[in-house]
Sequence to fold (458 residues):
Amino acid sequence: MTDSTEGSDNEQISERPESLLPRSKRRRFTPLKVANQIPKRRRKEIEKALEGSSGTPKKWSRQNGPKNHAFLRKRITPGSIRRLEFDLLSVDIGESWPIPITVVHGARPGPTITLLGAVHGNELVGPLALTYLSGPNFIGSGKAIDPDVLSGTIRIVPIVNMPGYKMKSRYMPDGRDLNRSFPGKPDSNTSYRVANRFWKEIIAGSDYVIDLHTAAVGRTNMPQIRANLAHASSNKIARSFGIEAILDNVGPKGSLRRVTNDADIACVTFEGGGPDELDPESVQVSLYGILNVLRSLRMIPGHPSRPSFRILASGSLWIRSDQGGLLDVLAPAGSFVDEGEVVATVTNPERPSESHDIISPTIGLIICSATNPFVTAGTPVGHILPVSKGVQTIRKRLDDDDCLVISGADGDPVWRDDDEVEDITVGGEWSGGNVDAEWSTNPPTDSDEEAAESDPSQ
Ligand SMILES: [Zn+2]
Fold:
């Protein structure tokens, strides 16, 4: 009897019309079919890396109870805020370059995240955002970062390259780029010593690192995240930052991001705005993103916000001037432009009646644009992510000037589930091997090998 009942049940199920079968949960947006994707080999690398990612480490389990946080030979008790100084150099006499660090050690166990600004001394979005984040608007009882509620530890370093910052320079006093000097060496040149000390004392004990940058001199960046998406934990915080543009690449040689990833520590670079300037939009978007990451890691309460789409880019195109003269940028960083659209004009004081148009070679999003009007033939004036699919989705987020309104720049967007986010991938390769390889106006670093890989923006 049992057998026959089972048999008839099976028959009934197989004969049931398709519409009566339990329906899988429908997505509100179908995934985009994108012709121009991240190359297949790279997609496989990313998928493989994500498969191997494990769950939460046991040391972050709440069952372990709170422990002191050992940092710079100090023991920081759970549920406390400490303001510390860290000397970039260890010397008995002379300048040791102390930098301020705020440590918030939560009452509950969890990961350690380190937030960095001004690894390049003249990039001031990081110092501004992280100074605000260290202050009473964000940290304290009942605030976004409440030490009694926080799970884990947040280390905030608003200015890493303090000597460069004081000189209003990207570089260290020995003329080297600190972000091409990691992991450094203790007995080598000044920059390498600073890099090595910083690496050992501040970075090596971190689980996650967010490094805030701006474009280099003469240009400005639309807010964007750069990450090696084939590094699982970096991929996670890149996405959870909650903004639209993610550029997939391995950091330049000697960069903090590359060396940190090599040590299997998550690291993403935020880029927004230009050097030597106050860029309120980038400051706001970076704060918004950091809080999203903290929420996503369950270090602070609340749901992370998500953008309505993401552009995952593995390549780009350059818009160059074919003339020499003075540039007038019509479509600045953040502009969404059509193929054939005039993005800038060039004039020359010797022939003021003539003006040359610079045309976009593709439909896409300009992620970086020149701010210095002096150009010669071949100078890049814009850096564009070609977009072939998802155009209507992107257009919904453009303002009256066809500039993308970055998530976080217009207040709190509505909370969205992650599976409702449309991933728009952009294929290709980074010309020169790096996102910014073609911007080349800075002096080379200390060796030909490094100069060849030099990417002056990160
Ligand atoms: Zn930088």
In short: The two ends are 73 Å apart (CA to CA). Residues 1-36, 449-454 have pLDDT under 50 and may be disordered. The pocket of zinc ion is lined by residues 120, 123, 213, 457-458 (CB under 6 Å).
